[in-house]
């Protein structure tokens, strides 16, 4: 038997989330690597699933948890042996395949990478999908030619998981970062992570002109909707906007003006199905480019039993930074 955060929905649509004892025989047959999970984490998508706020879960019942770190205890995959330390992000785990908010997970080897040297399992989950997504956004800016001397980088949703890690990464790499946040009480915290200035998210949250005063050399956006549209309208000629989220909405009420008159690049960033070579590059960079002291200040460790309340805090917008779940 093993403990798991188990999500259930009956034929009438009645939803239940709770910590349950499950039998190992119930684990998905599709997995070829059995992992003893030591740590997981809570992301925005986990919050949606655990609080039944969005149709994230597409197969019922479901073990929640899109991220996991642990040790291989059984393998039918030649790439992984017993004792290997591994991490997982995304690939539909916690949505269509049982996830990692559990003591055990049976996963496909093609989804796993070996834990990067220099990072502990706890640190990997403090980074989690949110931090790994932030690194993918930084890589997108770099590949778009956005260098520190080009000017300011805007990070929206700055108090969230993606935002806090993005600020830490960008500041260590020498960029001047401006954080957009709706939590004025977090201003000093965001500056401690490396933000040079903090603006009110309300400045970006309403409909604006198709072209506005050029300011940003690059943008990391996890918000979408009007915020993303205004960020694009304010981006400098030839700048790059990395879009990875939809906290404000899935819509993009913009025009082609920033793209055809200023040569702005809007770069979509997907962390769920990114190929392994991209993941390995991102995690290798995280192991070297992220200030682990800052990572410690922006993460909080909770138990599996506290994960449901933690998910509620994410949905209510009352939590800042990252939550690590120690299994």
Given the C-alpha coordinates, what overall shape results?
globular
Return the CATH architecture of the largest domain.
Answer: Alpha-Beta Complex
Number of strands: 16
Low-confidence stretches: none
Oligomer kind: single chain
Helix-strand string: EEEHEEEEEHEHEHEEHEHEHHEHE
**Helix content percent band:** 25-40%
Number of H- or I-type helical stretches: 9
CATH fold description of the largest domain? Quinone Oxidoreductase, Chain A, domain 1
The CATH class of the largest domain? Alpha Beta
Distance between the termini: 14 Å
What structural class results from the helix and strand content? alpha/beta
Domain count? 2
Radius of gyration from the alpha-carbon trace, in angstroms: 20 Å
Architecture overview:
The protein is of the alpha/beta class and 327 residues long. It has 2 domains: 148 residues, Quinone Oxidoreductase, Chain A, domain 1 (Alpha-Beta Complex), CATH 3.90.180.10; 140 residues, 3-Layer(aba) Sandwich (Rossmann fold). The strands form 3 sheets. Strands 3, 5, 6, 7, 8, 15 and 16 form a 7-stranded mixed sheet that branches. α1 packs across α9, α2 crosses α3 and α2 crosses α7. The longest helix is centred in the middle third of the chain and has 23 residues. The mean pLDDT is 95.
């Amino acid at each position: 038997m093993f403990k798991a955060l188990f999500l259930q929905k009956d034929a009438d649509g009645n939803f239940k989330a709770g910590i349950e004892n499950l039998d190992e025989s119930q684990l998905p047959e599709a997995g070829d690597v059995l992992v003893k999970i030591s740590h997981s984490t809570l992301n925005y998508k986990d919050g949606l699933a655990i609080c039944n706020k969005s149709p994230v879960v597409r197969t019922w019942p479901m073990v929640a948890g899109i991220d996991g770190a642990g040790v291989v205890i059984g393998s039918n995959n030649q790439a992984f042996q017993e004792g290997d330390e591994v991490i997982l992000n995304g690939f539909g785990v916690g949505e269509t395949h049982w996830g990692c908010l559990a003591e055990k997970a049976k996963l496909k080897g093609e989804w796993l990478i070996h834990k990067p040297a220099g990072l502990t399992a706890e640190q990997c989950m403090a980074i989690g999908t949110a931090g790994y997504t932030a690194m993918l956004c930084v890589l997108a800016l770099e590949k778009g030619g956005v260098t520190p001397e080009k000017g300011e980088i805007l990070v929206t949703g700055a108090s969230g998981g993606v935002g806090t890690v993005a600020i830490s990464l960008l500041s260590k790499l020498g960029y001047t970062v401006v954080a957009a946040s709706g939590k004025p009480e977090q201003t000093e915290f965001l500056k401690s992570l490396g933000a040079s200035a903090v603006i009110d998210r309300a400045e970006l949250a309403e409909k604006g002109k198709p072209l506005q005063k050029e300011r940003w050399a690059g943008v990391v956006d996890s918000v979408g909707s009007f915020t993303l549209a205004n960020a694009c309208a304010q981006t400098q000629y030839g700048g790059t906007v990395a879009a990875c989220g939809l906290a404000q909405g899935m819509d993009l009420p913009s025009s082609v003006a920033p793209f055809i008159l200023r040569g702005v690049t809007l770069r979509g960033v997907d962390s769920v199905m990114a190929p392994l070579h991209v993941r390995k590059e991102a995690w290798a960079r995280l192991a070297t480019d992220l200030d682990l002291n800052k990572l410690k200040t922006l993460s909080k460790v909770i138990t599996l039993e506290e994960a449901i309340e933690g998910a509620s805090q994410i949905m209510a917008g009352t939590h800042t930074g990252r939550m690590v779940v120690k299994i």
